[in-house]
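Human:
Take a look at this sequence-structure pair and walk me through the tokens.
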Amino acid sequence: YLLLWNISTVPGSGLTLSDRVRSVGYVLRLNQKWSMFAPSPAKGDGWYVIPGKLQNGRVVDVLENGKPVHWGKPALISATFKNDHWRKLLEVMRKQTSLFPHYAAYICRDWNRRNRGTDKLVELEIVFLLERTQPNYDYSPVEKITFLKHQCGAEQPATPSPQQDEGNV
């Protein structure tokens, strides 16, 4: 039953289960989808860099608690998130860019609550570095996508506008 159910969820498989047969799967909670792996796995992934300008003029990586900005790929991308909830939120934001201004305002408030004087954050940029997997499992050049430039303390958060840089990063 599970094999047939899963085959029926693959687009183009030609197998369809009747509503009556499918209802058994829903009642017994056996309903599944292979959409994570079929018809093909995700072909793009990347990491965030959030450079922020402080009142003293210094530019720091806000995600790395004020370390110098580093554009290279982290050894372990998952370690750049506080936890899996934050990872998932940032994944969703790439699809719902209207959430970025709220996230940027939160970053400003959180940073400035923990830092005083000239170490206060005055502006930031939310950048995603996209790496696409090629058919031969090689990687494409990294694409730099700027989702938002934000001024801290602005009454209205800036409107997000994903912009892709022309060159390689």
Summary: The chain has a mean pLDDT of 86. The longest strand covers residues 121-132. The CA atoms of residues 52 and 124 lie 4 Å apart.
